[in-house]
Amino acid sequence: MADQSSHAGKGIGQKNIRARVASARSRSRDMKNRQVLRFGLPKGSLQEATIDKMAKAGFNISVSNRSYIPYVDDEEMEVRMIRAQEISRYVEHGYLDCGITGHGSRKTARRYTK
Description:
- This protein is an alpha/beta fold.
- It has two domains: 1-33; 35-113, 3-Layer(aba) Sandwich (D-Maltodextrin-Binding Protein, domain 2).
- Helices cover 54% and strands 18% of the residues.
- Helix 3 (84-92) crosses helix 4.
- The termini are far apart.
- Mean pLDDT is 76; it is low at 1-11.
């Protein structure tokens, strides 16, 4: 009997997992049909000032300490927190559509893109 009860518990868990996978696939299909702006923001010393500027522009962004993918209240925007000096390279290679970086980072990026 102990075997049957443990199998019953696994069956319920598997149904729950299948439902979650189906839901994730559905959301993924919906996201593929939407146009999303992939936006890079600087992590580190420029982070707080940039998030404040984005808030003044009407975007509420909340970042946890360890996450590189913050919450943004606009479903047509995906934000990534990246080192400022890397943002231009991510845009150049098409991983991001645009980003905010510091003046010194742009000079460094020009050296690599020429």
